[in-house]
Amino acid sequence: MADTDSPLKQLFSAFITDFAAWLLQADVRDAHPLNIELPAEMLAADQVFHVTLADERTLVLHIEFQGRTSHQPMEWRMLEYMTRLAYTHRLNLRSVVIYVGRGAGAGDTGRYQVNGPDGTPTLTWQYGIIRLWQMRAEELLAVGRPALLALVGQTQIEMPEIVLPEVVARMQSVPDTEMRGRLLAALTALIPEEEIIAMVERLIDREELLMDTPFLRRIRAEGREEGRAEARAEGALAARRRSILDVLVVRFDPPVSVYQQIERQLETITDEAQLAQLLATAVRAESVADFQAALGSEQRQH
Description:
By secondary structure, this protein is an alpha/beta fold. Helices cover about 55% and strands about 15% of the residues. It is built from 11 helices and 9 strands. It is globular and about 65 Å long.
Protein backbone atom coordinates (compact mmCIF):
# COMPACT_ATOMS: atom_id res chain seq x y z
CA MET A 1 0.00 0.00 0.00
CA ALA A 2 2.93 2.31 -0.72
CA ASP A 3 0.79 4.68 -2.84
CA THR A 4 -1.65 5.28 0.03
CA ASP A 5 0.56 4.96 3.11
CA SER A 6 2.17 8.40 2.94
CA PRO A 7 -1.06 10.33 2.09
CA LEU A 8 -2.91 8.53 4.88
CA LYS A 9 -0.28 9.34 7.49
CA GLN A 10 -0.11 12.99 6.39
CA LEU A 11 -3.91 13.27 6.45
CA PHE A 12 -4.32 11.76 9.91
CA SER A 13 -1.48 13.86 11.33
CA ALA A 14 -2.92 17.09 9.92
CA PHE A 15 -6.48 16.42 11.16
CA ILE A 16 -5.88 14.14 14.14
CA THR A 17 -8.55 15.68 16.38
CA ASP A 18 -11.23 14.86 13.80
CA PHE A 19 -9.97 11.34 13.27
CA ALA A 20 -9.47 10.77 16.99
CA ALA A 21 -13.06 11.79 17.66
CA TRP A 22 -14.22 9.37 14.98
CA LEU A 23 -12.10 6.44 16.14
CA LEU A 24 -12.79 7.02 19.83
CA GLN A 25 -16.45 7.98 19.41
CA ALA A 26 -15.89 10.83 21.88
CA ASP A 27 -15.37 14.58 21.94
CA VAL A 28 -11.66 15.37 21.72
CA ARG A 29 -10.13 18.53 23.13
CA ASP A 30 -6.52 17.98 22.07
CA ALA A 31 -4.27 15.40 20.43
CA HIS A 32 -0.56 15.48 19.71
CA PRO A 33 1.89 12.90 18.32
CA LEU A 34 4.07 10.65 20.46
CA ASN A 35 7.27 8.84 19.60
CA ILE A 36 6.41 5.93 17.27
CA GLU A 37 9.64 4.06 18.10
CA LEU A 38 8.98 1.56 20.86
CA PRO A 39 11.54 0.30 23.43
CA ALA A 40 13.50 -2.98 23.51
CA GLU A 41 14.17 -4.27 19.99
CA MET A 42 13.49 -1.41 17.61
CA LEU A 43 9.86 -1.41 16.57
CA ALA A 44 8.00 1.48 14.94
CA ALA A 45 4.24 1.85 14.94
CA ASP A 46 2.52 3.80 12.16
CA GLN A 47 1.03 6.60 14.28
CA VAL A 48 0.72 7.17 18.03
CA PHE A 49 -1.02 10.17 19.66
CA HIS A 50 -1.61 11.43 23.17
CA VAL A 51 -5.29 12.39 23.25
CA THR A 52 -7.15 14.53 25.76
CA LEU A 53 -10.92 14.08 25.67
CA ALA A 54 -13.43 16.85 26.33
CA ASP A 55 -13.99 15.47 29.83
CA GLU A 56 -10.22 15.75 30.56
CA ARG A 57 -9.51 12.01 30.41
CA THR A 58 -6.27 11.16 28.60
CA LEU A 59 -5.28 8.11 26.60
CA VAL A 60 -2.97 6.85 23.87
CA LEU A 61 -4.45 6.42 20.39
CA HIS A 62 -2.50 3.99 18.24
CA ILE A 63 -3.28 3.68 14.51
CA GLU A 64 -1.94 1.14 12.02
CA PHE A 65 -2.59 1.28 8.28
CA GLN A 66 -2.53 -2.11 6.60
CA GLY A 67 -2.98 -3.33 3.03
CA ARG A 68 -3.71 -6.82 1.79
CA THR A 69 -0.43 -8.39 2.91
CA SER A 70 1.55 -8.38 6.15
CA HIS A 71 4.96 -9.84 7.00
CA GLN A 72 3.43 -11.57 10.01
CA PRO A 73 -0.19 -12.05 11.14
CA MET A 74 -1.68 -8.74 12.20
CA GLU A 75 -2.92 -10.02 15.54
CA TRP A 76 0.63 -10.84 16.69
CA ARG A 77 2.00 -7.54 15.41
CA MET A 78 -0.73 -5.71 17.30
CA LEU A 79 -0.06 -7.66 20.49
CA GLU A 80 3.58 -6.56 20.36
CA TYR A 81 2.70 -2.93 19.64
CA MET A 82 0.01 -2.78 22.32
CA THR A 83 2.05 -4.34 25.13
CA ARG A 84 4.98 -2.01 24.47
CA LEU A 85 2.75 1.06 24.25
CA ALA A 86 0.95 0.13 27.46
CA TYR A 87 4.25 -0.47 29.27
CA THR A 88 5.83 2.75 27.94
CA HIS A 89 3.00 5.22 28.54
CA ARG A 90 0.99 3.60 31.40
CA LEU A 91 -2.24 5.17 30.08
CA ASN A 92 -5.51 3.83 28.73
CA LEU A 93 -4.94 2.60 25.19
CA ARG A 94 -7.05 2.44 22.06
CA SER A 95 -5.50 0.64 19.08
CA VAL A 96 -7.13 0.62 15.65
CA VAL A 97 -6.16 -1.06 12.37
CA ILE A 98 -7.39 0.69 9.24
CA TYR A 99 -7.42 -1.74 6.32
CA VAL A 100 -6.95 -0.33 2.83
CA GLY A 101 -7.61 -2.21 -0.41
CA ARG A 102 -10.30 -4.71 -1.33
CA GLY A 103 -10.11 -7.84 0.79
CA ALA A 104 -7.60 -6.42 3.28
CA GLY A 105 -8.19 -7.70 6.82
CA ALA A 106 -11.20 -9.77 5.80
CA GLY A 107 -10.39 -12.46 8.36
CA ASP A 108 -9.24 -10.21 11.20
CA THR A 109 -11.69 -10.31 14.12
CA GLY A 110 -9.75 -7.88 16.31
CA ARG A 111 -10.26 -10.16 19.34
CA TYR A 112 -7.75 -12.84 20.31
CA GLN A 113 -6.69 -14.92 23.28
CA VAL A 114 -4.14 -17.49 24.36
CA ASN A 115 -5.45 -20.25 26.58
CA GLY A 116 -3.85 -22.13 29.44
CA PRO A 117 -3.65 -25.94 29.58
CA ASP A 118 -7.15 -26.14 31.08
CA GLY A 119 -8.60 -24.08 28.22
CA THR A 120 -9.20 -20.90 30.21
CA PRO A 121 -7.79 -17.66 28.76
CA THR A 122 -4.43 -16.57 30.15
CA LEU A 123 -3.97 -13.65 27.74
CA THR A 124 -6.55 -11.67 25.78
CA TRP A 125 -6.24 -8.61 23.58
CA GLN A 126 -8.47 -6.67 21.24
CA TYR A 127 -8.24 -3.74 18.88
CA GLY A 128 -10.58 -1.83 16.62
CA ILE A 129 -10.91 -2.65 12.93
CA ILE A 130 -12.01 -0.36 10.12
CA ARG A 131 -12.14 -1.85 6.64
CA LEU A 132 -12.45 1.18 4.39
CA TRP A 133 -13.14 -1.01 1.37
CA GLN A 134 -16.28 -2.37 3.04
CA MET A 135 -17.64 1.05 4.00
CA ARG A 136 -20.12 2.98 1.89
CA ALA A 137 -19.15 6.56 1.09
CA GLU A 138 -22.38 7.73 2.71
CA GLU A 139 -21.15 6.46 6.09
CA LEU A 140 -18.32 9.00 6.05
CA LEU A 141 -20.67 11.75 4.90
CA ALA A 142 -22.91 10.96 7.86
CA VAL A 143 -20.08 11.55 10.35
CA GLY A 144 -20.14 15.25 9.53
CA ARG A 145 -16.39 15.90 9.65
CA PRO A 146 -14.85 17.15 6.36
CA ALA A 147 -11.43 15.63 7.17
CA LEU A 148 -12.85 12.11 7.01
CA LEU A 149 -14.18 12.72 3.51
CA ALA A 150 -10.63 12.52 2.16
CA LEU A 151 -10.97 8.76 2.68
CA VAL A 152 -13.96 8.47 0.35
CA GLY A 153 -11.89 7.14 -2.56
CA GLN A 154 -11.09 4.01 -0.56
CA THR A 155 -14.77 3.29 0.16
CA GLN A 156 -17.62 1.98 -1.99
CA ILE A 157 -18.96 4.85 -4.11
CA GLU A 158 -22.15 3.55 -5.66
CA MET A 159 -23.36 6.89 -7.05
CA PRO A 160 -20.29 9.08 -7.66
CA GLU A 161 -22.35 11.68 -9.53
CA ILE A 162 -24.22 12.35 -6.25
CA VAL A 163 -21.56 11.62 -3.64
CA LEU A 164 -18.58 13.46 -5.11
CA PRO A 165 -20.25 16.89 -5.51
CA GLU A 166 -21.35 16.68 -1.87
CA VAL A 167 -17.83 15.71 -0.76
CA VAL A 168 -16.21 18.60 -2.65
CA ALA A 169 -18.86 21.05 -1.42
CA ARG A 170 -18.22 20.10 2.21
CA MET A 171 -14.47 20.42 1.74
CA GLN A 172 -15.02 23.84 0.19
CA SER A 173 -16.70 24.85 3.44
CA VAL A 174 -13.39 24.49 5.32
CA PRO A 175 -12.40 28.15 5.91
CA ASP A 176 -8.63 27.73 5.99
CA THR A 177 -7.27 27.76 2.43
CA GLU A 178 -4.24 25.60 3.19
CA MET A 179 -6.26 23.04 5.12
CA ARG A 180 -8.83 22.95 2.34
CA GLY A 181 -6.04 22.38 -0.15
CA ARG A 182 -4.57 19.56 1.92
CA LEU A 183 -7.91 17.82 2.16
CA LEU A 184 -8.53 18.03 -1.57
CA ALA A 185 -4.99 16.82 -2.26
CA ALA A 186 -5.48 13.86 0.09
CA LEU A 187 -8.85 13.10 -1.50
CA THR A 188 -7.36 12.80 -4.99
CA ALA A 189 -4.20 11.01 -3.78
CA LEU A 190 -6.32 8.30 -2.13
CA ILE A 191 -8.56 7.64 -5.15
CA PRO A 192 -7.31 4.62 -7.13
CA GLU A 193 -9.55 5.09 -10.22
CA GLU A 194 -8.43 7.70 -12.74
CA GLU A 195 -12.04 8.24 -13.86
CA ILE A 196 -13.08 9.23 -10.33
CA ILE A 197 -10.01 11.49 -10.00
CA ALA A 198 -11.05 13.25 -13.22
CA MET A 199 -14.57 13.77 -11.83
CA VAL A 200 -13.18 15.31 -8.65
CA GLU A 201 -10.85 17.63 -10.56
CA ARG A 202 -13.73 18.81 -12.76
CA LEU A 203 -15.76 19.52 -9.62
CA ILE A 204 -12.88 21.48 -8.12
CA ASP A 205 -12.73 23.64 -11.24
CA ARG A 206 -16.50 24.09 -11.26
CA GLU A 207 -16.48 25.17 -7.61
CA GLU A 208 -14.02 27.97 -8.50
CA LEU A 209 -11.15 26.47 -6.53
CA LEU A 210 -8.75 27.03 -9.42
CA MET A 211 -6.53 29.13 -7.16
CA ASP A 212 -5.87 25.98 -5.15
CA THR A 213 -5.25 23.70 -8.11
CA PRO A 214 -1.46 24.25 -8.47
CA PHE A 215 -1.09 23.65 -4.73
CA LEU A 216 -3.19 20.50 -4.96
CA ARG A 217 -1.28 19.17 -7.93
CA ARG A 218 2.06 19.85 -6.30
CA ILE A 219 1.07 18.17 -3.02
CA ARG A 220 -0.51 15.24 -4.83
CA ALA A 221 2.54 14.80 -7.06
CA GLU A 222 4.85 14.98 -4.05
CA GLY A 223 2.74 12.43 -2.18
CA ARG A 224 2.70 10.00 -5.09
CA GLU A 225 6.40 10.43 -5.81
CA GLU A 226 7.14 9.90 -2.11
CA GLY A 227 5.02 6.76 -2.21
CA ARG A 228 6.86 5.46 -5.29
CA ALA A 229 10.24 6.30 -3.75
CA GLU A 230 9.26 4.55 -0.52
CA ALA A 231 8.10 1.51 -2.50
CA ARG A 232 11.39 1.35 -4.44
CA ALA A 233 13.45 1.76 -1.28
CA GLU A 234 11.42 -0.82 0.64
CA GLY A 235 11.68 -3.22 -2.29
CA ALA A 236 15.47 -2.94 -2.26
CA LEU A 237 15.60 -3.44 1.52
CA ALA A 238 13.26 -6.44 1.32
CA ALA A 239 15.45 -8.01 -1.38
CA ARG A 240 18.55 -7.51 0.78
CA ARG A 241 16.82 -9.09 3.80
CA ARG A 242 15.74 -12.07 1.69
CA SER A 243 19.32 -12.52 0.47
CA ILE A 244 20.59 -12.61 4.06
CA LEU A 245 17.98 -15.18 5.07
CA ASP A 246 18.68 -17.29 1.98
CA VAL A 247 22.40 -17.36 2.79
CA LEU A 248 21.71 -18.41 6.38
CA VAL A 249 19.37 -21.18 5.26
CA VAL A 250 21.86 -22.54 2.73
CA ARG A 251 24.81 -22.38 5.13
CA PHE A 252 23.27 -23.29 8.49
CA ASP A 253 19.64 -24.44 7.99
CA PRO A 254 18.58 -22.78 11.30
CA PRO A 255 15.48 -23.96 13.21
CA VAL A 256 12.24 -22.27 12.27
CA SER A 257 12.12 -20.35 15.55
CA VAL A 258 15.62 -18.95 14.99
CA TYR A 259 14.82 -18.10 11.37
CA GLN A 260 11.68 -16.22 12.42
CA GLN A 261 13.54 -14.34 15.15
CA ILE A 262 16.22 -13.23 12.70
CA GLU A 263 13.54 -12.29 10.17
CA ARG A 264 11.84 -10.05 12.75
CA GLN A 265 15.13 -8.44 13.71
CA LEU A 266 16.02 -7.74 10.08
CA GLU A 267 12.64 -6.04 9.59
CA THR A 268 13.71 -3.38 12.10
CA ILE A 269 16.81 -2.45 10.07
CA THR A 270 16.04 0.12 7.39
CA ASP A 271 19.56 1.21 6.50
CA GLU A 272 20.78 -0.41 3.27
CA ALA A 273 24.46 -0.10 4.25
CA GLN A 274 23.76 -2.01 7.47
CA LEU A 275 21.97 -4.75 5.57
CA ALA A 276 24.83 -4.97 3.08
CA GLN A 277 27.26 -5.41 5.98
CA LEU A 278 25.03 -8.08 7.51
CA LEU A 279 24.90 -9.94 4.19
CA ALA A 280 28.69 -10.03 4.16
CA THR A 281 28.62 -11.24 7.77
CA ALA A 282 26.17 -14.02 6.86
CA VAL A 283 28.57 -15.21 4.19
CA ARG A 284 31.60 -15.19 6.53
CA ALA A 285 30.08 -16.27 9.87
CA GLU A 286 31.14 -19.61 11.30
CA SER A 287 27.71 -20.28 12.81
CA VAL A 288 24.23 -18.84 12.95
CA ALA A 289 24.97 -17.82 16.55
CA ASP A 290 27.88 -15.69 15.31
CA PHE A 291 25.57 -13.99 12.84
CA GLN A 292 22.96 -13.36 15.57
CA ALA A 293 25.62 -11.75 17.75
CA ALA A 294 26.63 -9.44 14.90
CA LEU A 295 22.99 -8.65 14.18
CA GLY A 296 22.39 -7.75 17.82
CA SER A 297 25.46 -5.53 17.80
CA GLU A 298 24.20 -3.69 14.71
CA GLN A 299 20.84 -3.07 16.37
CA ARG A 300 22.43 -1.73 19.55
CA GLN A 301 24.63 0.70 17.59
CA HIS A 302 21.65 2.29 15.81
